[in-house]
Amino acid sequence: MAVSLFSAAQSLFRARRVCSLGLSIIASGCIVPFVSVAWAASAGDSRATIDRGAYIARAADCVACHTKPGGVAFAGGYGIQSPMGVIYSNNITPSMTHGIGGWSEAAFARAVREGVSPNGTRLYPAMPYDSYAGMTDEDIHALYVYLQGAIAPVDTPVGPVTRLRFPYNMRNLMRVWNWLYLDRTRFAPRPGETVAQARGRYLVESVAHCGTCHTPRNFMMAAKAGHKLEGAQVGGWYAPDIAAGTHGPLGSWRDDEIEAYLRDGHARDRGVAAGPMGEAVEHSLRYLTESDLQAITAYLRQQNRSDSSGRPVRPTTDPARAYQLDSPDDRLIRHAARAERNATPGLYADRRNYRDIDGGAALYMAACASCHQIDGRGTRDDFYPSLRQSSAVQASRPNNLIMTILAGVHRDGADGAARMPAFRHDLTDQQIAVLVHFVTDRFGSTPLTPSATDVATLRRFDTADLPAEARP
Ligand code: HEC
Ligand code: HEC
Ligand code: HEC
Question: Which parts of the chain span the membrane according to its record (predicted)?
């Protein structure tokens, strides 16, 4: 799913204004007293059920995919990039004409857990029904009550219709897909599992569908068996291996760091949630209770596999080394930037004018050092994070670093907002390639040398979701 920060931020902003975003509906008293025909049968449902449904809708992130940029929450029309083409989400407001207003609870459950609409239409797994298949009857009921009873119906058609090319336009092929790949097992605690691990497994595998992004897919878009949560490409981004165990890349993170990352979108000297992960934090994970975050972490820890020895362990930097001023690196970068500037007089006349800069150090000085500091260690309060321990810089693939430079960071976490400017209009592909080499060489553990063409490829993912007027 190539999701754009820009469009998601926009949709969130506008959706807030119309007062129809998940919990905020309840919090701000904007509940619409709408009861559909189908829902009237279950009128005995209490406020507690609606609240539970709202929580599950958050945890399952229904709103993010079912709201188009600038559109009304749950009214659909959001385009999801897939290797087969763009798949648009549907209107799931209780509209009798365009939404799920006339649907029975059983029909709703079948769509969400098996990917089959009441008229028999087969859904593509861009709707993560293969994850939701494990959802319990209680949670499906609560979701149904919430969507039917607390969301305003939107009676107009939304956005574009999905048109995939042959043979993907044959939705009946999804019958075969379901037969091959759909695991219909409902969640149930397993013997030997703690309560927290079981809850975490339910959240990770079914509700919060972490595997939609973190589990590699085969050519049919189905999760690769035996590689659960081991890392996968999502649009231009790379969702890292999070099958933590004690040896995996997350093995060196403390539990409270994983929880902070999920809740706030950043964990000091570990990493920052940008791109699709930033959206997952902003729309969904920051609303989870502490005990649910602990449960997710407990479950990730449990993924201790015997084959973990060959997987890369991210180096940890000695914290005592951080924040030495005037370090040798400092002096080198200053020196290199000065040499580049002397060779190109007038370089810094306008700091925002990067056009003529082509050396890595000078580019870093001009575009990045004001926040991440000359030595890449960020500010002491971590408001501008250190690049030295950052997972995007330490990674063996340049994807997340390139995407972060192109798209910036635009995320609201539980502890506030994080904003890094997007450089998509300011830096060329060649400049970004040079900068990535400089940053990974100086601050990372493996110097990376992407080409300008590599950057151009990722740039297409970055802009695919932007409104036409905002494209470069
Ligand atoms: C990752 C994105 C994504 C998430 C998250 C998501 N959906 Fe969907 N959903 C889609 C897409 C895309 C479609 C359309 C699929 C197609 O056309 O085959 C869809 C279709 C549906 C449909 C079928 C509607 C119809 O008219 O046939 C229902 C119902 C639905 N989603 C409910 C939900 C609920 C409830 C949640 C949260 C529990 C949810 N979705 C979360 C992407 C998503
Ligand atoms: C929409 C796709 C998506 C979903 C859903 C998603 N992630 Fe992520 N995740 C990513 C991407 C992309 C990154 C890399 C972000 C970056 O570096 O800025 C990431 C990064 C992470 C990291 C940091 C790993 C590291 O080594 O830096 C953790 C931990 C994580 N995700 C956990 C989860 C958990 C747990 C869930 C489910 C509750 C989840 N993610 C759901 C896409 C996703
Ligand atoms: C105006 C200040 C500012 C500038 C300029 C800036 N950044 Fe950032 N950067 C931030 C903020 C804020 C964050 C996110 C902090 C958070 O999420 O808590 C961030 C995050 C990052 C991350 C994510 C780290 C991770 O662990 O995933 C990387 C990488 C990064 N910046 C690289 C750069 C590079 C390279 C440049 C120069 C092209 C740059 N930044 C310019 C403020 C800035």
Answer: 21-41
| Confidence tier at 293 by pLDDT (50, 70, 90) | very high
Task: Find the largest Cα–Cα distance for the chain.
Answer: 77
Establish whether residue 117 lines the binding site of ligand 1, counting it when its CB lies within 6 angstroms of any ligand atom.
yes
Buried b (16+ CB within 10 A) or exposed e, 82-109: bebebbbbbbbbbbeebbbbebebebbb
Give the pTM.
0.85
Ligand 3 atom index nearest CA of 401: 29
Asked if residue 210 has its Cβ within 6 Å of ligand 2, the reply is yes
**How do residues 210-240 score in pLDDT, each as one tens digit?**
999 999 988 888 898 888 898 999 989 999 9
Which of 60 and 321 is assigned the larger pLDDT? Answer: 60
Task: Please give the number of the atom of ligand 3 that sits closest to the Cα of 264.
Answer: 18
Regarding the beta carbon of 407 and ligand 1, being less than 6 Å apart is answered no
Is the model's pLDDT at 309 over the cut of 50?
no
Ligand nearest to the CA of residue 314, numbered in listed order: 2
Contacts of 21 (CB under 8 A, 6+ apart): 12, 15, 63, 73
Ligand 1: atom nearest CA of 124 is 18
Tell me whether strands 266-267 and 416-420 are parallel, antiparallel or unpaired: unpaired
Task: For residue 75, report the distance from its CA to the centre of ligand 1, in Å.
Answer: 11
For 241, residues 6+ apart whose C-beta sits below 8 A from its C-beta are 214, 229, 230, 231, 248, 249, 250, 311
Going from the Cα of 80 to the center of ligand 1, the distance in angstroms, rounded, reads 11
Which amino acid is present at 287?
Answer: Y
Q: Which two tokens stand for residue 48?
A: 């507690």
208: its two tokens: 């919060």
* Å from CA of 277 to ligand 2 middle: 5
